[in-house]
Amino acid sequence: MPPPLARPALTQGPILKSLLTLAGPIVLGNLLQTGYQLVDAFWVGRLGANAVAAVAVSFPINFLLMALGSGFSVAGSVLVAQNFGARKFDTVNHVATQVLVLETALALLLTAGAYFASPPLLHLIGVGPEIFAEANQFQRVLFLGLVFNFGFLMFQALMRGVGEVRIPLYINLGTLALNFLLDPLFVYGWGPVPAFGVAGAAVATVCTQALSVSIGVGVLLRGRSGITLSFRRFRPDWPLIRRAFTLGVPSSIDLSARALGMSVMTVLATGFGTTVLATYGIGTRILALGIIPALGVSLACSTLVAQNIGARNVARAERTANYAIGLSFGGLLLVSAAIYLAATPLVRFFLAGDEAVTRDAVEFVRIAALSLCFTGVQQSISGALRGAGHTLAAMLLTIIGTWVLQFPLAWYLSSRTELGFRGLWWSFVIANVLAATLAGLWYLRGDWKRNALADELQKQADSAVALEDKVV
């Protein structure tokens, strides 16, 4: 029998409604996360160009660290969702506690390493002396908050695993508003609070992250969301932690490959001069906003597939993936059309006054937007693979799409054809179509439906739960 406060499993009812119910708040949450960057840019921008540059150069390093943490949160979400679908609530609680232990340990290790490695990392990427001190202070403060950031990533993943996506959204909304108030307080100082300058934006972010994870842990301890934490379960269950680690590593590599891919494409764009680099930066920012709906559908698909596999309803899991693929393709087709038609005002929102960059950026956005619907297909298929526990397959699809297809195409088309720098733009289209085709063929093979993850995990976790009950 389920506990009285457990949420219903997403293994019954209309599939499309379940997908949209889960995906909507996830999309809004991702947009709110983008809002953090905009808030920091708003307040730091008033300190001058050097301050803006100090924050910007720290982005690739922090993005890579977040990718590592997000990969293990994917593992937590899948493990919880499969057992929740099987209605094994004691196992859900045990798994949730153990993946939190894993994520916290990882965050502490990365914090220590990244904090002391901050200066050499900045030297490695060529940060100039005029912004070095500010950049180092800014990212070191962010590194100190990794345990809070990773903790909230895992909280969101666990909530997503049981189908609860509204609580994280409400927490994100409240802390974003708080961050807007704390940024000027710590950046410029007021009363007894000293002015930290650029580092103040990081201090404000860490404060809101600490509050977010504190609220999240409180929600889990109260047990009113489908998961109930218990302090007696925090004793490490090494077989389960190893399984979660094995499941999470491919997802971390998957997301890290995307993060590093952004940097490599930036290097290719840099070779064509400042105008092309600015064009690439603006265009990719607009395209990143355009695929947020697909990311939401992908995460929702992962949860639904995992719960249905846990419930041994593989046919419904497959129908869910089919719905997600169709929804992402159709939805991003509409988004692509909107971006194509509104390309000029969108570009001018990020840049005003430079007609050459504006013209080239509009061209880039319109070319690349043609393939967003194929990106949606690949994202949904990857979500289905992760939900079934095949994180390695999802990782391989990303690596092939990014490193085997797009980069060689981008280099060849831009340096060996008459397209010139426009070859970078067309590499998005060709690579996305080819990657989606490969993902589709992989998906149609049906191997992802043959999965023993739920059975294997169930035996491990049930044994641990039984042992705990005997001890108590």
Automatic annotation (TrEMBL):
It is found in: Cell membrane. The keyword Membrane applies. The chain crosses the membrane at residues 20-39, 51-80, 100-118, 138-158, 170-190, 196-221, 259-280, 286-309, 321-344, 392-413, 425-444. It is a multi-pass membrane protein. Keywords: Cell membrane, Membrane, Transmembrane, Transmembrane helix, Transport. The keyword Ubl conjugation does not apply. It comes from the Bacteria. It holds the Pfam family MatE. InterPro entries: MATE_fam, MdtK-like, Membrane_Transporter-Flippase. Its main location: membrane. Coiled coil: none annotated. This is MATE family efflux transporter. It comes from Hymenobacter aranciens.
